[in-house]
Structures are given as structure tokens and as C-alpha cells.
């Protein structure tokens, strides 16, 4: 990383501001590099024409960069009244520092005498360092203030979501719910994009992991909220339906607050700031303290070292006390703990003996004990890793076929309350096993971000399990309710999705343990002041994102309309009536189109079939004319889409771009 002229890196030079995002940091690096180049020229013995031209070019480049930063800052100040004074001062200081650097680098000729009284970069290095400090400080302030605008956008977006969420919770009719949920969907898409950008931009990996966990909850809960609310509206007197719905709303509000805590760096109520110490970190810290004895025999006590080992041993009881830890692993863990205790006692005895004759370094006996203790600790970590990972792999394999979920769906659809109770008990047992496994994985995860992901997985299983039970209880009380069945399916899918996430987590933990780390995600570049003509170049780069947003919104609206049709058709007593049957067909085909907008792998598009179903309807002249016109448009678009999908692409973004190009036509 580039260093500032004052000998510190970009992250913490004395601007008085903490740089929390990669975009701000990376924007500063070229400027730091240019200024460092200028200052280092003082150390060159000869002022050649080539050197002078290089100094002038760099000075001019700094001036151009400062001009851009100032223009950006002034545009932000104009759009955000609350930042006007601070931004104005920062821009003024940046411009003044830029002018000073321009003056100091104005060295046109090698023949120019230094005795003419002019101060240049060659005659006054102190002035150059002072100007450099002022420039970096003021430009950093401009960027950090610009970053506040991004935070403000996220907070405003969250506030809109909360208001709409309150409205959704209070609605009493399905038609009103559909209208408000459509607005809610739009707001959630906007919030997802803003927070996704922020997540990629954060420097702190722990905050990034927490943000990813909260955003995952919001994404999964959106569909749960839809079906849980529909079920509650369809069965307003059902207590289990109300419990199910209330759980979703509570979870979404909590996730929204977590996002804002991370964005605003609020530390008060965040328990993620105070993670319980894992065995991995306990072992790591213990080894550091033991190896420190090679440097000095003084500065730490024997009692504190022994106490720390006992703390690690106590944590291993999460493994050894578990009924699901194999006898082999349990014995291995206990044996290594005992061996480490004994070797530490030997080390302490040798340590005290060395201190008794004022030794200044570790003795040979101490060195041998240090090596043995570190070796035992490494073996203990391996044993714990094998126990936790093996346990998790077996559990995922055992529950891969989702026998319990299928039993719940079957007994709920039959209205068999006794069978529902038995399957619910088995699901609760499965949940407890998963919770314990998540805790074991957290102990050996190897990094704090993965620890946070383990905690998130544990929380998810803790919440989704009871929600599945309340959903199946509702279905058992109303076994013919299609909405209740759909709701149960959604929660079961969330459970399966969480198991898939756990499998991914398991692979990541193994990668860390074996020293394999994947490439980090790319981050976004500042300046990013929001929607402004100042940032047209940024907006052009984000064009595919806007297409995704538009199609996601349309897909969600289509999903809501299909839900509306399902609700209305369910009210008909004659379920085999022609109108009901045709309406359900239309709804099913529309739903397949929605799935295409949501999943790039969804291959079934029934546009042509949809046109064929629309034609036979007996309608009035005006309605028939409108249907014919819309059907012809749909046929044309389907033909274009079928041609487009023949092109092989990979990934959701590419699919969105293909479909978006056809839709724009």
C-alpha cells in the first residue's frame, strides 16, 4: 500500500478521519504516489531537463486531480445542505494545497537560478511536505464526506422500507396488501442494491460478514413475508398463522436494524462486536504467549498462562460432552489436553528455575517444552477440526433427502394433527443437532468473518424451525388451503437453502484450515454521491444493475398478480369450473415467467402457450380487441426471446442482459 509523505500508510495518516471503505482508500493511493514522487526528487543529485519535466508533469497531474476532487465536493455540497459548510472548507483547503504544490513544482528549466528568491520543490522540502499533508487531509475529508451521502441514502431507503413494512402488517384486505407489497418490493430492491454496494466496499471483513448475513435474512424473508401475510389474510382467526407472520416481520425489522448498525458504525447494541472467544483463537493466543518466553522470561505470570490453558480445555467440553462426538475423537481430544497440561507444568517448573538465577533467555529444557506444547496445540486443533467437520458433513448427508420436511408436508396436507406433532418433534430434534453443529464449527472456523457466518447459521436454524412448525399447524387446520400449503413450502425451502449455505460454509472452513483462500470480491470506486449528473460515468457503468432492478420489480409484480388470481380462484365452490381452470392455467404460466426473471437456470417459458389460452376467452368486443392486440405483442416478444435464449450464456447477470436487450426492443 502506498505511503503518505509523513511516513504512514493511506489508512491512518493524521487527517483526523478514519477511512472505512476501500473505495476511499484506493482513490487516495494514486495521489499519495504522485506526491511521494515529488518529495523524493529532492534527494536526486542532478536537476536534469528530464527530471524537471517529470516534476512538472507530476505537479500538473496533481493539480488536475485536485480540481476533479474539488468539483466533486462542490457538487455534493450543492445537493446536500447539511454538508455544505464542512465540504466547502475541505474544498477550500484542497484547492489552496493544490495551488501550493503547483507553485512548488513550477520549475521550467535546469538553467533557472535558485537565487532568484522563488521557493521550489528543490529549495524547500518542508514546504512541500506541509502542502502534501494539507492536500491529503483535505481530499480525504472530501471523500469521507461524500461517503456520508451514501450512508444517508441507505438510511433513507431503510426508513422507507420500515414505513411500508408497518403498513403491510396492518392491512386487512388482500387487494390492499397486493398494492402495498408491490411498493415494498420496489423499495427492497433499491435497499438491496445500496447495501450490496456498501458490503463490497467495506474494509473490515467482520462488518462485511455481518452485512452479508443481514442481507441474506432480508432476501429470504421477503418471500416468507408474502406467503405468511397471505395465509394470515386468508385465515384471520388462525393463531398459528398470526404467530408465523409475526415471526417474519420481527426478523425483517431486526435485520434492517443490523444493517444500519453496520453502516453507521453503531457499537452499543451489537453483540457481534463482542464475539465469544472461539477455541481456535484461544489456542492461537495461548501459543503466542508460550512462544513469547523465547524473547523474555519476565512480563507474564505462570498463573495466567496456566489459567489460559484451562480456559481452552474448558471450551473443548463442547466437543467431549456431546453425545454425537465419536469415541475416537473424544479420546483424542482428552489425551491431547492432558499431555499439554503436563508439559505446561514442566515448562513452568523450568521457567521458575531459570528466573531463580536471573536468566535472560529460555533454557534448552524450556525450549523443548515450548516446542512440545505448540505441537500438542496444533494436533488438538486438527482433532477438533476433524470432529466438527466430520459431524457437520454426516449431518448434512443424513438430512439431504429432507425426510422430515416431506413428512410434515404430507401430514399437514392430510390434516393429521397427531402426525404433525410427531414430525414437528423430529424437526425440533434436527434443529437442536444443527444448532450444536454450528457452535462446534464456530470454534474451529479459523477467521472472525467465518465465526460470524456460523453464528448467523445458528440463528437462522433457531428461527426457521419454529416457523415451519407454525406453518404446518396452519395447514393441518386448513388442509385444503392452497395458500397455507404454499406458505409451508416457502419455509421448507428456506430450511433447505440454509442447509445448502451450511455446506458452502463447511467448504470455506476447510479452505481456511488447509491454507486455501479464494479471491476476495471486488469493491466499488468512489466518488459515489448518489443520483447526480456529476456521476454520469458511474451511472453508465451501473447500467446492467438498473436492468436487473427493472426486471426484478416487474417479476415481483407478476408474482403478486398470480397470487391474487390464486386467492380469487380458491373462493369458487366449483374448482373444476372452466373459468377457474383457465385462470389457474394463466396464473401458472405467468408464474413460470416470474421464475425466469428470478433464476437464470429456469428453462420453461410458456409465452406461446399463454397466447393460445388467451384467444378462446368469450369477451366483449372492446375486451377482445384489447386482448388480441396484447396477444400479438406478446407473440412477437416471445419469438424474440426464444431467439435470444438460444445463445449460450452463464450466470444471472448475463441472462438479465440478454432478456433486457430484447425487452428494450
Automatic annotation (TrEMBL):
Q: Which UniProt keywords apply?
A: Cytoplasm
Q: Which InterPro entries match?
A: Alpha-catenin/vinculin-like_sf, Alpha_catenin, CTNNAL1, Vinculin/catenin
Kindly indicate whether the keyword Cytoplasm belongs to this entry: yes
Q: Does the keyword Coiled coil apply?
A: no
Q: Superkingdom of this entry's organism?
A: Eukaryota
Q: Name one GO biological process term.
A: cell adhesion
Give one GO term, molecular function aspect.
Answer: cadherin binding
Q: Quick one: a GO cellular component term?
A: cytoplasm
Its main localization is cytoplasm
- UniProt xrefs under Pfam families: Vinculin
Instruction: Please state where this protein is localized.
Output: Cytoplasm
Protein family:
Belongs to the vinculin/alpha-catenin family.
What is the name attached to this protein's record? Alpha-catulin
Amino acid at each position: 500500500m502506498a505511503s503518505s509523505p509523513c511516513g504512514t500508510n493511506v489508512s491512518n495518516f493524521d487527517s483526523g478521519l478514519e477511512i472505512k471503505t476501500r473505495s476511499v482508500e484506493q482513490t487516495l493511493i494514486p495521489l499519495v504516489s504522485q506526491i511521494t514522487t515529488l518529495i523524493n526528487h529532492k534527494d536526486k543529485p542532478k536537476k536534469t531537463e528530464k527530471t524537471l519535466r517529470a516534476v512538472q508533469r507530476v505537479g500538473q497531474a496533481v493539480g488536475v486531480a485536485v480540481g476533479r476532487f474539488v468539483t466533486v465536493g462542490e457538487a455534493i455540497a450543492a445537493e446536500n445542505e447539511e454538508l455544505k459548510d464542512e465540504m466547502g472548507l475541505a474544498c477550500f483547503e484542497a484547492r489552496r494545497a493544490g495551488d501550493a504544490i503547483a507553485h512548488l513544482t513550477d520549475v521550467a528549466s535546469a538553467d533557472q537560478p535558485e537565487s532568484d528568491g522563488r521557493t521550489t520543490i528543490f529549495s524547500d522540502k518542508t514546504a512541500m511536505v506541509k502542502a502534501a499533508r494539507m492536500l491529503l487531509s483535505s481530499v480525504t475529508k472530501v471523500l469521507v464526506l461524500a461517503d456520508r451521502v451514501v450512508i444517508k441514502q441507505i438510511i433513507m431507503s431503510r426508513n422507507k422500507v420500515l414505513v411500508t413494512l408497518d403498513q403491510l402488517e396492518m392491512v386487512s384486505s388482500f387487494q390492499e396488501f397486493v398494492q402495498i407489497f408491490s411498493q415494498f418490493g420496489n423499495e427492497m430492491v433499491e435497499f438491496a442494491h445500496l447495501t450490496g454496494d456498501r458490503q463490497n466496499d467495506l474494509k473490515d471483513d467482520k462488518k462485511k460478514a455481518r452485512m452479508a448475513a443481514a442481507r441474506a435474512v432480508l432476501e429470504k424473508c421477503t418471500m416468507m413475508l408474502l406467503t405468511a401475510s397471505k395465509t394470515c389474510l386468508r385465515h384471520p382467526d388462525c393463531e398459528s398463522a398470526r404467530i408465523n407472520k409475526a415471526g417474519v416481520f420481527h426478523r425483517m425489522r431486526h435485520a434492517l436494524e443490523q444493517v444500519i448498525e453496520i453502516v453507521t458504525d453503531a457499537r452499543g447494541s451489537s453483540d457481534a462486536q463482542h464475539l465469544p472467544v472461539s477455541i481456535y483463537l484461544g489456542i492461537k493466543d495461548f501459543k503466542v504467549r508460550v512462544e513469547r518466553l523465547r524473547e523474555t522470561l519476565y512480563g507474564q505470570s505462570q498463573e495466567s498462562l496456566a489459567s489460559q490453558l484451562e480456559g481452552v480445555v474448558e471450551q473443548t467440553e463442547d466437543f467431549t460432552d456431546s453425545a454425537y462426538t465419536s469415541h475416537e475423537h473424544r479420546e483424542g481430544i482428552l489425551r491431547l489436553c492432558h499431555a499439554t497440561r503436563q508439559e505446561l507444568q514442566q515448562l513452568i517448573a523450568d521457567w521458575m528455575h531459570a528466573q531463580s538465577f536471573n536468566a535472560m533467555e529460555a533454557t534448552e529444557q524450556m525450549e523443548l517444552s515450548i516446542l512440545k506444547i505448540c505441537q500438542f496445540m496444533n494436533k488438538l486443533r486438527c482433532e477438533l477440526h476433524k470432529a466438527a467437520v466430520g459431524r457437520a458433513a454426516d449431518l448434512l448427508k443424513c438430512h439431504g433427502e429432507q425426510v422430515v420436511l416431506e413428512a410434515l408436508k404430507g401430514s399437514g396436507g392430510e390434516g393429521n394433527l397427531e402426525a404433525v406433532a410427531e414430525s414437528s418433534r423430529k424437526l425440533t430434534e434436527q434443529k437442536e443437532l444443527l444448532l450444536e453443529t454450528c457452535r462446534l464449527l464456530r470454534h474451529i472456523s479459523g477467521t472472525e468473518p467465518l465465526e460470524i457466518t456460523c453464528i448467523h447459521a445458528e440463528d437462522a436454524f433457531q428461527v426457521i424451525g419454529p416457523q415451519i412448525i407454525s406453518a404446518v399447524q396452519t395447514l393441518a387446520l386448513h388442509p385444503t388451503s392452497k395458500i397455507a400449503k404454499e406458505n409451508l413450502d416457502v419455509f421448507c425451502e428456506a430450511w433447505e437453502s440454509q442447509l445448502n449455505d451450511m455446506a458452502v460454509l463447511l467448504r470455506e472452513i476447510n479452505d481456511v484450515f488447509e491454507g486455501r483462500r479464494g479471491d476476495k470480491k471486488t469493491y466499488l470506486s468512489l466518488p459515489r454521491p448518489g443520483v447526480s449528473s456529476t456521476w454520469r460515468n458511474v451511472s453508465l457503468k451501473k447500467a446492467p444493475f438498473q436492468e436487473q432492478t427493472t426486471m426484478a420489480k416487474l417479476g415481483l409484480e407478476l408474482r403478486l398478480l398470480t397470487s391474487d388470481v390464486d386467492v380469487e380462484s380458491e373462493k369458487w365452490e366449483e374448482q373444476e369450473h372452466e373459468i377457474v381452470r383457465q385462470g389457474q392455467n394463466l396464473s401458472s404460466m405467468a408464474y413460470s415467467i416470474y421464475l425466469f426473471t428470478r433464476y437464470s437456470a429456469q428453462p420453461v417459458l410458456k409465452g406461446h402457450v399463454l397466447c393460445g389460452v388467451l384467444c378462446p376467452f368469450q369477451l366483449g368486443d372492446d375486451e377482445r380487441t384489447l386482448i388480441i392486440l396484447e396477444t400479438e405483442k406478446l407473440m412477437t416478444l416471445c419469438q424474440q426471446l426464444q431467439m435470444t435464449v438460444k445463445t449460450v450464456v452463464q450466470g444471472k447477470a448475463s441472462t438479465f442482459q440478454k432478456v433486457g436487450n430484447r425487452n428494450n426492443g
